[in-house]
Structure formats: C-alpha cells, structure tokens
Amino acid sequence: MQFKDIFPPLETVLEMNPEELAPFVLKYLSDKPNINRYNFTLGSNPDIVAYAGGRLNEELNNRLMEAWMWLEKEILITPKAGAQHDWAVITRRGRKIIENDNFSAIKFEALLPSDNLDPVLLQKVKSLFIRGEYEMAIFAAFKEVEVRVRKKAGLSNSDVGVKLMRTAFGTGGGLFDATLPAGESDAIRELFSGAIGTNKNPSSHRDVDFENAYEVIDVIFMANHLLRLVERTHMKLNPKI
User: Quick check: 132 and 190 in contact, CB under 8 A?
Assistant: First the structure.
C-alpha cells in the first residue's frame, strides 16, 4: 500500500494529533515485511517523500514520529526481539486491530485513561468499551457500583437495584452518614438510586442503544465518581478497618 493511498491530504495530517494519525501509520506498516522507525521517516523513504511533494518536510516527519511513539506507548508496535537499530514488529494487539479494521478503537481507548479510573471498574469496562460494546460497558460499570455498595453496606445478594441503594444510604443503612445534614443524606441516596435506575436497570430488561463514545465515557466516569463516594463514605464510617 502506498502512503498516499492511506493517509489524508498533507495539510490534514499536519493538523492531526498523534492518536488520530496513529491508525493510518499502523495500517501503512501492516503489509511491510520489515519496519524500522528510521526507514519509516521522511528522509529515507521515497514513498513518503513523494507524498510530501518530492521534498523533505520536517514538520511531517515530526508528526509521523509522534504517531510512531504513540503506537509504542499503546503496545501496538514494539522493538523486535534480538534485533538492533530500532527494528520493530506489530504486536498481536496491533494485528488484531488491523484484522478487525477497528482503528477507531485506538482513538477511543485514549479517551478512557487508566490512571483516572477505579482499578476494578477499569478491568470490567475497558475491553468492552474498546470493542464498541457500549451497552455492556455501561451495564458492567453500574453492576460494579451495585456490587460495591452491597459489600460495603453489609447487605445480601437479595438486595438489588434501586431498593439496594435506598436501603444502603437510607437511615440506619450501612452507608448512611448521620453526620451529614438530612438534605445531603437524602440527595446522596437519590443520586445512587437514580443512577442505578437510569443506567443499569434499563439494560437488564431491554436493548439500549448507545452510539456516542463520548457519552458512554461520561456515564462510565459517573460510575467512577459513585465508587469514590462509596469508598470515602465507608472509610469515614469505619476508620479502623
């Protein structure tokens, strides 16, 4: 595959962020028997020189190397074992993305940063989100909220959904904070009840159509915020545990 057949126009490429350009770089490299970061750069690759109008373009070169480094960071390409001089290979994960033609997964994965999410939540939702299984990702996120509330409140498996939240955060419940003003306690109870009723319960009973990845991220971070509240409240009520 020729560079010009894969990449957008030059003026577009020069405006793209590394994570936006990276899928094109990965696709371009996919049919190359040997890949090397230096052979991929402008000065040593006539294919790229031709794309750049037959002249060296340092700005383009920098954009391509930024995308290469992003692919390395995401472990989509990696140094070739036993080789020297920056020879590289496409990883199994990278090949899977190429085979499934799922380049949008690369872009959207970067929107769900691992260091900002509860580690258990991350494990539950990230692979679903990357595969585009948005309904299942949201269901898994709020199932984790439900499981965490039940555990921290000391309730049984028969307590589920909205009822679970009202019991856990209601007066006398395992996560009821009596030091808060009544209005705040009521608001927290309703926050958890509404979030479960809106985001988990519908997917339990029918298909829910989620198409916007950014909206799904918002919902996942809502679940993340609720998990933080659960942990904070539990630690406040049980300081010696």
Answer: no
